[in-house]
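From the methods appendix. Each design record in this collection lists the tokenized structure first, followed by the designed amino acid sequence. Records were kept in a plain field format so they could be parsed without special tools. The example shown here is representative of the layout used throughout.

RECORD:
FOLD TOKENS (210 positions):
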């Protein structure tokens, strides 16, 4: 590879990593919010009301959306550019989890923005859970959310894998991925009403024609 092309690739990867760290602050808060929701719908909504004071401030939310678009765009560029050069299971795991995250993020953030602006809904727990109570949409939302959370953990796990000593790094990646599977399973169970009763107002169900 030409030195200039290599420098460009390293710069793109470095900026992708930097933006991931900034977006990561929001994601951590977002996942802790879902963790709080494991004890009940009200707990999820109370936590979100407080967290929104931070991330819904225009000075935070607008750059956050910009960084997410950059994250998706730069990730897809690396995915396509390295398609024929990729070797080994971890490089493919990183590419596939990143590809799904790009699909998930565009849909997820698009749905939240449309829910708020076009449908005038409060995009809280009830918005996230409504699809589980509007058959047959549960068959879409269960794998959709499950894979979104698992992909996030696997993708972060792959990044950790490349940045630690060789010894033990496969165990570390497996551990982070399994944690993602456990977390994703509990979130899907909570949203679907398997952990506690969930109350979805008619306005949310109406968006599915129910
Ligand atoms: C079970 C899994 C998930 C559920 C149920 C969920 C649900 C939600 C809900 C309800 C909102 C709206 C928040 C608000 O109105 O204040 C939201 C926003 C968002 N979520 Fe998720 N989420 C999940 C996983 C993820 C994952 C894995 C990511 C990232 C990889 C993610 C990224 C985002 C982003 C970027 C926003 C937009 C924040 C904003 O600008 O307001 N979510 N999510």
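DESIGN:
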């Amino acid at each position: 590879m030409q030195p200039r092309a290599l420098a460009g690739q390293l710069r793109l990867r470095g900026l992708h990593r930097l933006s991931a760290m900034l977006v990561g602050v929001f994601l951590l808060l977002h996942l802790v919010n879902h963790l709080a929701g494991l004890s009940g719908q009200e707990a999820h909504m109370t936590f979100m009301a407080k967290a929104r004071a931070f991330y819904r401030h225009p000075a935070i939310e607008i750059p956050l959306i910009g960084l997410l678009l950059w994250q998706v765009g730069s990730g897809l560029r690396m995915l396509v550019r390295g398609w024929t050069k990729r070797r080994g299971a971890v490089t493919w795991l990183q590419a596939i989890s990143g590809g799904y995250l790009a699909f998930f993020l565009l849909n997820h953030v698009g749905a939240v923005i449309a829910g708020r602006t076009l449908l005038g809904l409060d995009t809280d727990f009830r918005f996230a859970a409504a699809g589980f109570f509007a058959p047959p949409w549960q068959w879409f939302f269960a794998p959709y959310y499950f894979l979104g959370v698992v992909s996030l953990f696997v993708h972060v796990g792959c990044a950790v894998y490349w940045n630690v000593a060789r010894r033990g790094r496969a165990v570390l990646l497996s551990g982070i991925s399994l944690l993602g599977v456990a977390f994703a399973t509990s979130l899907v169970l909570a949203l679907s009403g398997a952990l506690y009763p969930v109350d979805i107002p008619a306005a949310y169900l109406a968006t599915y024609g129910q």
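APPENDIX NOTE: The pocket of protoporphyrin IX containing FE is lined by residues 27, 30, 34, 48, 52, 55, 61, 64-65, 68, 101, 105, 108-109, 112, 123-124, 127-128, 145, 148-149, 152, 187, 191 (CB under 6 Å).
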